[in-house]
Amino acid sequence: MEVIVEIRTQLMERYPLLQNCEKEIMEGFYEMKKSFEQGGKLLICGNGGSSADAQHIVGELMKEFRLHRQVPETFAQECRRLYPGEGLEARVQGALPAIAIGGNQALASAYANDADPEMAYAQEVFGYGRRGDVLLGLSTSGNSRNVVNAMKVAKAAGLCCIGLGGRGGGRLRELCDVYVALPEQETYLVQELTLPVYHAWCRMLECAFWGD
Fold this sequence. Notes:
single chain; alpha/beta; 10 helices
């Protein structure tokens, strides 16, 4: 789609530092798109600011971002049949299924306290993940143990593993099918480049499923 190329071009023009990882950015997009097309979902994990980024991504994918998202006509018809005149089908927005790992505080704290805090994310990935899903790991260093363990479990369970982080990539890079190595190493500088990349992904995905 031309609009996908346009989004990619805009990203590179605004953030020329990202030109060295343009190929991996597009590979990540195509892997997520393929998963959604096949009925899969996206799991996302990170710590601190990266955890906030994971929730941010969910917010962009699970509701309208820039385009109007109609629900499937079969669902709309069923809403009209069951609840005539309520307009329920017009009040629900199309969504791409995404889950921020670690967002359930009760589960995260219980697993950390009762079992192994370094495996808390991995446990959620094991519970939610199915073959064909995607796990996106956000780590500025690439060495966050809970994220690395989540990737190991994802790989064993047949998920596609995508990493987004700093130049070195650490242990995370070795586990990923696609790793986007942002051209910075210091935490806040990596984070400054993380947001435009995932915003571009969210725009591309929305256009792929709801664009003209």
